[in-house]
Structure formats: C-alpha cells, structure tokens
Amino acid sequence: MLSGDTVIGANGEKISAFSDLQRAVFRLKVGDRMDISVVRGGKQQTLTVTLGEMPNP
Fold it and tell me: What's the pTM value of the predicted model, to 2 decimals?
C-alpha cells in the first residue's frame, strides 16, 4: 500500500473504520495472505498482501 491509499475492504469485508481493519488482521497469522481493497488516485484496486511479524520498536 502507498501513503494516501484509503482502505475500503479486506478479504471481502467492508472496512469503515480502522478498528474494522484491525479485527480482520487479528483473525490471521504471520504468513497468511489478505486481499485489501483500496482507493488510490480516485480508482479502486485490490492488492494482495502477506502478513509479516511486527518489528520490535
């Protein structure tokens, strides 16, 4: 994803708030793939991402 993308869906579920995206991600594990629907530059597109581990701060 790029800065400025607006997430509108994850694995076929509508995303209306950041908490919706958090719930969708928390159901998965490292290595799982997820389809993310975004609006980029006024156009909708679907990206496939692979979940990784959260780096230590």
Answer: 0.79
